[in-house]
User: What shape does this take?
Amino acid sequence: MTDFLPTLLTLASEPVAAQVGPVGFAALKEVSLSAPLAAWLIPGLPMLGAVLAVLMAIGGVKSKLPAWTTVLCLAGSFAVTLWLYLQMRDAGAAYTTVKLFDWISFDYLPGKAFVANFSLYIDQLTCLWMLFVTGLAACIALYASEYMSHDVGPGYCRFFFAFCLFVFSMACLVMGDNLLLLYLGWEGVGLCSYLLIGYFYAKPSAVAAAKKAFIINRIGDLGLALGIMLTFVHFGTIQFAELLPKVEQYVALATSGNLAAVPASVQWIAVLFTLAAFGKSAQLPLYVWLPDAMEGPTPVSALIHAATMVTAGVYLVARTMPLFQCGAVTVPPDAWVLPGLVVPALDIVVWGGALTALLAATIGMAQFDIKRIMAYSTVSQLGFMFVGVGLASSYAGAFHVFTHAFFKATLFLSCGAVMHGFGGQLDLRKLSGVMWMKGWLVVGLAMLVGCLNLAGFPFTAGFFSKDVILAEAFSNPHQRVVAWILLVTAGLTAYYTFRVFFRVFLGPKSFEPGDEAHGHNDAHGHDDRAHDGAGHGHGAKGEHGAKGEHGAKGEHGAGEKGAHGAHDQAFQPHAPGWAINLVLAVLAIGSLVAAYAYPTKWVKGLVEKSSAAAVDLTGSAAHAPATLLGMDPHEIMYYVSAGVGAVGILVAFFLHYLGRKTAATSRADAINLGALQRGAQHKWYVDEFYDATVRVPLKVLAHVLHFLDKVLVDGLVNLAGLLPRGLGMSLRPSQGGELHGYALAMACGIAVLALVALFSLV
Amino acid sequence: MDTFLSPLLLYGACALGGAGVALALPKQKAAPFVFGAILAAAAFGLVMVLLGVASVRAMSGSGDASGGQGAAATARLVWDALPNYHFYIFSAIALGSALRVITHQRPIYSALWFILTIVSSCGLYLILQAEFMAFALVIVYGGAILITYLFVIMLATEAPTEESVEAMNVYDRVSREPVIATFAGFLVLAVLTTMLAGGAKRLELNPAFVATDAPLALMPARVEKVLREAGVMEEGERLARMPSASSRKGEPVDLRTSVAADGRPGGELRIVASDGKTVRVLPLAQWPEELRLSNTERVAMELIERNPASIEIAAVVLLMAMLGAVVLARKKVEMDEMAKAQAAARAREGGELSGGLGSAAAFVPPSVGGNT
Amino acid sequence: MIDTTFGAALTLGQFTLGQFTLGQGDLPAPMSGITLYHYLFTASTMFVLGLIGFLTRRNLIVMFLSTELMFQAAGIALIAFGRFHMNQTGDAFVIFVLTVAAAEAALALALIVLLFRRKETLDGQAWASMKG
Assistant: This one.
């Protein structure tokens, strides 16, 4: 314990590369668990939860029962994950496979087979991932039990069905033993994301957002499918246990500087997987769906679009790190543009991540909807994660994933509580001083913890994880620009995060109710029944009653049967109940505790004992560590990023806290950056750009094809109908109905036949 | 030209005849029937002349007409062939009447010309030594079928109105597509005649070449009677029966027929003398004329001996036809609306002949067109 | 010989009537000039005339009369063949032809009477309602 602080202060004093030594796949040994099939409970229990939710929907359950079953199932899944982790922890650098049943397995040539079974591949990376996935899922399910409680009935069951199905798919994705099962999970999480974003299916904007998410994910899925096919074509197998050893030979080529010698079909696998990861994890250019995905209920945003689904891309890169190490885009030497250029796949990942981080941060600075700001911050932080894995440091990326999951979930859930309590109000110009309102303290504190993590305040988990990435970036002499971009982005992140906090939670108390104030908006699902106490738990149920201000039915009761419009003056925000507060507290504490993972090198140990560890980073052509300000980056990164973060927080403090009298105004309004500001507010017009370059041409093409279809295809088909008709019409006159006509025809026929007979009797 | 019956000439004759018949058929404008008939007759005559000459050559053996005797020999040959004129006359009348049947504009005359055709066919049958058939033809066809036709023509004639008493119906006056029909028909004829000639090589001549009198064996009483009347068989003699037969009365006569190598017939009857043992042979040359079977008897033997079942079936067919005709003709028939209107119009305009067929609802017994 | 490309008709060349000679037995010579072919020619001509009459005339009765003409022609041919083969098969067949012709005439005429009653006309073209 005495060397705890010094250990903390020397930030990873040795470069990650020269450490323990990533094991390389060949060094992983296979072990077996004490009860292998129990590992299948991890996906199995969520599936059970999904089935139960469906049954309850069929049975017409109108209580919160689906939520409790879901929480129980997910908690059970978390427990099994814990057990699994404990089993694997002692095994060291090992993996195990647990097969449930043969799914696809056929021999297409003697000696060659396509095998993709329902089996799990479990190593340390898997355990790490599943721990936070199942844990967060259980917590957020509990949160959602209250958040969605005004919607009990079929909608409630539908929500939890999709929720459980999502966790099942995520488990398949993370724990799958082969790429096909990963793809199954990939698609499954995409599907559940669509179902959940479009949960309020009566709202056109929600439906549009769901479609947008699904379609853009699909673009990425194309990359994944092609990559899997290419993998199979080249390596003959898609099971990780067999695949990864085969890649080692190419990795050796790559790290010895001979990347161009790797066969093109192997190089392209990683590039295609990059496309897939960018689609799923909302990076440039496929990030546009994530901000719109905030149309879904907040628990969905928290779980899927902050913690789990969007990290699937990072997981893919981490899991197939050997492939990424030998991936590249190679321009043939005889091309007439950029001949001979070799762009390693990891470079694409790094640059994509960095640019996305910067872009999203700039957009986030100019938005007013707090959930949107959090969404853009997710995109930005994902960029950080990708830079981490792109620097061949799966540890950096995975650690940031781990910490980000906790604090981003906290942030989202806090925003959700605000939204829930203020009738859907999310504009930071209309809310102020929430933390000082009665019953909102827990929310405010949780928000504060999350913001500190996000901004990288010293000694928080976010601080450590982000700094590992920054240090890694600065250490790499080839990626200086990326490193500076990231540093600037960190400053911007701190600014906009605390902008939100200072505007919404601190300052003078004022609020305006949102559009979803009671009963106005059907999508929120309020109805008269809720006021009677069944759903919201007003008064009689005591949840709000315990907080005191709604104890009597008075305020709501005054207008409950009458015009709800009169409520505006009488609107009172209702503070969150026990479930929300509990979850927020747990997550906030969790994100604080996660900081402890750094000095214990817990995550690092896990990642490096798995296949995700990049093999042989040192290599002869590896970088000599670069310096930052003349000193080793790993040592001073701390202070640099702390300084940058402090600058950001101070600017936000100055602009958004000091001298603010009302919710709507602040000193920031005096700054007018003109076109820059407008551009950032309009998200740099990316959506409009896509619309013009992709959607409009497609629409024109669709019209053209429609025309062709009508004229050509239908025309052909109609011709097929017209021909017999025409033939019939032309033959019709021969059927005159007259006996003589027929007889004459017969006689002529006889004459012809006779002639033929005459001349053929030669 | 060497060849009088080359197929080209046949075709030419058919074309000519076709043109003639097409001209002869009734048309909208005045039909040049006479002209057409002459043309057709010319064609027919041409063919007949050709056939006649060819038959003369066949009779005299081919090829020696070109030799030596010149005009005199040819004249003799033609004179020898003259008795064939019966055939030519009957044939000409038959075909001429047939032409008139199909070209006359009034149906009643068509039927009458048809009777003439029957009569000339009867003549042709007589030449062919089928007397019974000839008379059967006249009796059945001319006496029964044609009479029926005449009755129906009477029944089914529209009642003439006052202004159009003698007018013919348009459907009688105008024939339908005469040219194509004639062309098709004569095409068939050309092919038929050519192929008939060509098929001659495949005809197998009856080796017997002679109408056998074998059925006489089954008519012992007749044979005896004729022989005794002719005085060939004496009293006390009797006919020999077949060797294996017993001596009962109904056993076949011992009659032996034979055919000589050149096709001449031969035959023998055996007569047993009164003493019961001596057998005398009566050769064909000494048979009385009356002994030979006539056509009637031959046809009878043919029918009963060889086609007994067909006779029964024919009887059934006739019965069915009779019943059918009775049932059909008894049916009540509703008249077409248009026809009713026409009949009503005619009735209004008067004429005592026009009323009968006008009332449709009640059963109209078959009657002559007009009030009964 | 004439060119054979025109088919069987010409390759028959000129044919002799020798094979058509009717058997005479011990009948006197005068009829020996007429061969079977003569009768067949007459019969086929009469047949074709009947066919043409059937096709061209519109009056129902004349149409059926033409069919009777065709029966006649067939009869002539049959009798001629019977004579040619010197047996009575042809004669027996003609008996049956007469039977059938009689039956057919009876029924056809009954039908004609019915048809006439329905439409008051003997025009064969009046019954064209089965027009396609």
